Amino acid sequence: MNFDDTPQEAAFRAEARQWIGANAPKEFEAELSKSSLGRIRLQKAEIVDVGKAWQKKKAEAGWACLHWRRNMAGVARRRSRR
Fold first, then answer.
1. 17: DSSP letter
2. What DSSP character marks residue 4?
3. Which phi and psi angles does 46 have, rounded to 5°?
4. CA distance from start to end of the chain
5. How far apart are CA 4 and CA 20, in angstroms?
6. Is the pTM of this model over 0.85?
7. Which among 21, 32, 59, 63 counts the fewest CB atoms within 10 Å?
8. Under a CB-based contact definition with an 8 Å cutoff, are residues 63 and 16 in contact?
9. Which residues pair with 41 in a beta bridge?
């Protein structure tokens, strides 16, 4: 099995990393990195609300539901780009 990226796959990964780096909600990063399994609350925000906002932001930019078909509100990315 070949795990080396093609140039197109490498470009896609770089694009994904750049988008996440620029858009991920960093204000929760430290707190979430210390969380344990089963923790469902943040100190200053509701985790479900934070998750919904993050999912919405990804969807608006075309980074959510990468494996769904377009007619099902997905992006329909190729298997190697999911």
1. H
2. P
3. -85, 125
4. 18
5. 22
6. no
7. 21
8. yes
9. 46
Neighbour tally for 61: CB within 10 Å: 11
- Gyration radius (Cα) of the chain, Å: 16
What are the structure tokens assigned to 68, written together? 């769904």
Which single residue is written with the structure tokens 């960093």? Answer: 26
| Separation between Cα atoms, residue 22 and residue 48, nearest integer Å | 21
Write the CA distances from 49 to 42, 57, 67, integer angstroms.
Answer: 10, 12, 24
Token pair 């985790």 is found at 47
The residue written with tokens 């906002």 in the block is: 53
* pLDDT profile of the chain (82 residues), mean per 10: 88 93 92 75 88 92 76 53 48
Q: Quickly tell me which residue has 């694009």 as its tokens.
A: 15
Concatenated DSSP letters for 32-82?
HHT--TT--B-SSSBHHHHHHHHHHHHHHTT-S-TTS-GGGTS----GGG-
User: What's the rounded Cα separation, in Å, for the pair 81 and 12?
Assistant: 7
